[in-house]
Amino acid sequence: MADVLFTNVRIFDGGGEAPFAGDVLVQGNRISRIVKTGYGQRSPPVLGATTVDGAGAFLMPGMVEAHTHFSWNDQPSLDAIQRMPPEEHILWCAEVAKKYLDMGWTSCVGAAAAKPRLDVVIRNAINDGTIVGPRYLAASQEITVPGGLGDTTAPHLPQHEFAFGAIVSGAEEMRRCVRMFAKYGVDSLKINLSGESITGMPGEMSQFTEDEVRVCVEEAKAWGKRVAAHARSAWSVKQCIKHGIEVIYHASFTDEEALDMLEAHKFEHFVAPGLAWLINTSHHASKWGLTPEVTKKMGYHRELEAAIESMKAMRKRGIRILPGGDYGFAWTPHGTNAKDLEYFVKYVGMSTMEALLSATAWGGPMMKMGKQLGYIREGCLADILLVDGDPLADITILQDKARILAVMKDGEFHRAPPVGEARPLRTGAPATVNRWAA
Amino acid sequence: MSDTLFTNVRILDGTGANPYIGSVLVQGNRIRQVGRSTAPISPSGATVIDGAGATLMPGMTEAHTHFSWNDAADLASIQTMPLEEHVLWTAKVARNYLQAGFTSCLGAACAKPRLDVVVRNAINSGQIPGPRYLAASQEITVPGGLGDEMPPHLPFPDFSFGQVVNGAEDMRRVVRMFLKYGVDSIKINLSGDNFVPGADAKTTWMTDAEVAAAQEEVRMRGKRIIVHARSCASVKQALRHGIRLIYHASFTDTEALDMLEAARDEVFVAPGIGILWALLWESERWGVSHAKAVDMGYEEEWAAACESLKAMHKRGVRVLFGGDYGFAFNPHYQNARDLELFVKHLGFTPMEAIRCATLYGGQIMMRPDELGAIKEGYLADLLLIDGDPLANLSILRDPKRILAVMKDGVFAKAPAIASQRVWERAA
User: Which residues of B make CB contacts under 8 Å with A?
Assistant: First the structure.
């Protein structure tokens, strides 16, 4: 691994200050030196490092996706995701993992896998170098109840192989299920506390008993695992806080009590609303038969409004809101995840700075890596993006792969920046002459 | 896809003809033009690769490939790898074979029912990189035979390395299952193997009725049977049933050789002798000392195989290279070592050895008129080699000497470019 010196870049360090001109030196897998080069200062020369002249490009920490489903296969239904055979499914997951890294997500938090071991296997394969992908925390399947979100068995085909989630009923079944996933080596348990309108059970409904939730959290903590919950209803959000469920996905419906509880425990929880799902299901899924009329009837328009209100309130109260969520359906395809940052600006009222910080500064603790991750600071892990343009002026450029010039993870280029000489010549044939010398 | 022109290369065309200096123009996925002089073809917009005298040869074909063997020391350890890990392993091995210069591989059995099919499909759809691939079934065997890894107290098919059948109708059902999955070839273990206690290489176990049922099903669907046949009786059985790709064929007698010679325009033999050599001489670390290997019967088999293969080669039977790489003592990507063994022990010339991997490769991949040679109109599967494989075959298994690998007109391994080297030094 050669050291890399980025010169002539605008550094966004993840701390909330305006970007400054400077140089960044990466040694091994860490950022070892940052020099401000404004006001005519020049950085001392570095011997032996590959120098990347950024030509004024924007250098920022790699982004963290807070609610990732590598195994969702860009299909329109849970059933269609579930039916993919395991061999094809694992190859799909590997392909998606690479795509996330391509798009600048150097860390992802798994939010549920479609088959028991997919997430664990992908995480291990990334870590041992079999495949390329972001830093990853592996999730279990969704744990649900008979008839709840994730129970895709048909009445005449009750075999659990047909189920999208892991179906439990009763505290002891919950305990067995959590233990099984802990044995497989997941980092977090995913529990579906509330419904989901598209599956027939509205998002305002909750589905688990207190006892089941308590056992889930108790057992997960005994194994040192984190619990993450699908919690759209106000009641399920409160359940999360009561039981100490660290990661709250969605939280669309909140009341004053829920918001007060969240605020009181705001540094013990992360909220990832996954607005993309609500927005695109409500308005951009007509191609798959979900016209706005249909989704209005399902209740998604009302939920979207409620979710926006909830997020605005949470933002005011300083609760950590993170991007990501439920990409991997036909109308929220993988790789478009940076839309979440745009949605935060457009709907929740965040500044572009706040939106960027939601993907970086809060990513470290979300990945259980504290402040080692999510900053361009000396000593931090070298997860770095080089961006053509200024995301603080236009947050949407992060959705464009061509604008993300380079992606570095753990000190190594996943996508190296294009080199000046490699640009095609404008005139003359032959187009390029490559000479190999013996 | 941009066009590519190789200039200043020594062309080893793969047909057995002597190499010559020239240039080769690749347009799209085919070889468009082969120039036989030092004056290069006009590039007309193609990317020019100046070979500086390196050897350009057809990509190699491995005739007996097990992507899913995971470099473990025994079949049970290959079998116990969980499915998800196994698929990723298989995908990784496929990519590395291509990097190592094998642009085509003929699957010779996989360790779980769908591994080969899934990886072939993923290669063909562009999801993962890998060679052209023909997907195999699992090994089909009989209770107690090579591939039946079920312990007596755990008689569950999930513990078995191969598919265990008993009787013609059972064979038919299993063959149909694999055909449903979409395999290109059905692998049947006709003989034993010295690896398996109680079912050594000289034993033969399948009934003619079982083999006939398999052959009937396979013919009906236009697929191919490939057989593990070490014993003399199993070689004859294969030929009697019209099986055209025989693996190993270590033990033969005059009758078997006559039968092989009579069918030599259709039949192929891939001996996979690398593993015999490895077990005899290089497996001490994994508990198989030379003395133990001799005891297991590998010395006898090695001697018999050398005699058989020399005789086949003399009689004009096409012998192919490759086989059974993917064990701890016979690891993946060293497959080209077979070519050296052919020359050292079987009396092949280096040119004949290379032809096994090129011209014959196109034939066993069932594309004899467009694969396996550097000829105009052929598919552009090419290797750029630093050095002369005819003078030193071992360079074909040195990644540093394989400067470039092209499959279907696209570089799987692009040649190093002088200008980039300069840039690296300057930095």
Answer: 2, 43-54, 82-85, 87-89, 91-92, 114-115, 118, 121-122, 127-128, 384, 386, 403, 415-419, 421, 423, 427
Cβ contact A36:A21 at 8 Å: yes
Tell me what percent of the residues of chain B surpass a pLDDT of 70.
97
ipTM for the assembly: 0.86
Tokens encoding A103:
């798009």
3-state secondary structure of A320: coil
Q: Tell me which chain A residue has its CA closest to the CA of residue B51.
A: A436
pTM of the shown model: 0.90
Whether the Cβ atoms of residue B63 and residue B270 lie closer than 8 Å to each other? yes
Query: Are the Cβ atoms of A87 and B386 closer than 8 angstroms?
Result: no
Q: From CA A161, how far away is CA A163, in angstroms rounded?
A: 6
Within B100-196, residue ranges assigned H as helices are 115-124, 168-181
Helix/strand/coil percent split, chain B, to 5? 35, 20, 45
**pLDDT of A269 higher than 60:** yes
**Hunting for tokens 């009396």 — which residue is that?**
B347
d(CA A191, CA A210): 13
**B314-347, pLDDT tens digit by residue?**
999 999 998 899 999 999 999 999 999 999 999 9
∠ CA A110-A111-A113, rounded to 5°: 80
Residues A32-76 pLDDT 10s:
999 988 766 666 777 888 889 998 999 999 999 999 999 999 999
- Is the CB of residue A151 less than 8 Å from the CB of residue A167? yes
